[in-house]
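Researcher: Quick sanity check before group meeting.
Model: Go ahead. Protein one:
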Amino acid sequence: MVNRNVLTFTSALLLLACSGCRVTFAAAVPSETPTLAPSATPTTQWFPPTPTASPFPTANATPTPDQRPGIGELLLEDDFSEAEVWTTGRDDEGVVMVSGRTIYLGLNAGGSYLFSTRTSPVFRDFYFEMTASPTLCRGGDEYGLLIRGRDGDHYRFALSCDGRAKVDRYLGGSLSRQAGWVRDQSIPSVIPGNSRLGVWASGSQLHFFVNDLFLFSVNDTQLYLGTIGVYAHTSGAGDISVSFSDLQVWAVGE
């Protein structure tokens, strides 16, 4: 059970930096040397609203193997047979659970976020793939991957349910757009469906893929290492349900 005094204090501090947005509950990102811990109900965090989007450009996604150079040995393969390595929880508005070789996120509150992160390991340079399978999703609702998560900071690679993609950075209580929104035929806009999401990260360079097609790059010097995770967001008053599976992470060389 979440300590209500701690929850109230944390929410009060974060509300100073955010108004008009809410998160049902979110997983805290572990430090650089996390340890495995039993599943726990995530604590509430408040995030500022996503910046106002500009008109949506169209990406030219093409097969570009050179955008993923130096991929080496397989570092991690997770079939979700061990639930305790993920933060999970449930409340009246959302649930994160590991079941049937997937991690499932369900949210029934409008304008809310739901997060889950893997407790270990910490990655610096890597290539990360995961399959996302939304079953209930509409319009501007989002789902996607978290990377380089540490002490609450992270990058978010998101697909919207109407066929767009973006990357945001959450750092020190502020959310900033790093790439997108863009539209592309490789981004599904029909639900239910499946997409293989990929992120190549080396130093300040981040490359993003959907179904093996390169979408865009980000060059950012703020976050260099951290854990990985998943998230979902309802932009309106509806619900969202999405499962993630087949997690793989490879080393990236020089």
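Researcher: Fine. The other one?
Model: Protein two, sequence then structure:
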Amino acid sequence: MDKNAFIMLYKSLVRPHHEYVNSVWSPYKKGDVEVIEKVQKRATKLVILFKKLLYTDHLVHLGLLTLKYRRLLGDMIRGF
């Protein structure tokens, strides 16, 4: 899968579910956060060009943030 196709599919099909889970469930235990983050980590491995890079490098090249950071931003916007 190429980078542009992945970004379009991920942002439209997968990330909305993560956003919902983060706002409703609001995981605070390290294990729970890691389980949710693992979904994004596995998904970024679908881009063939980045397969052998580290997860943090995947995020940089794809222009994505970690789900933990996105949750923090959402909490700040909502005023929690």
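Researcher: One line on it for the slide.
Model: Residues 3-78 form one domain.
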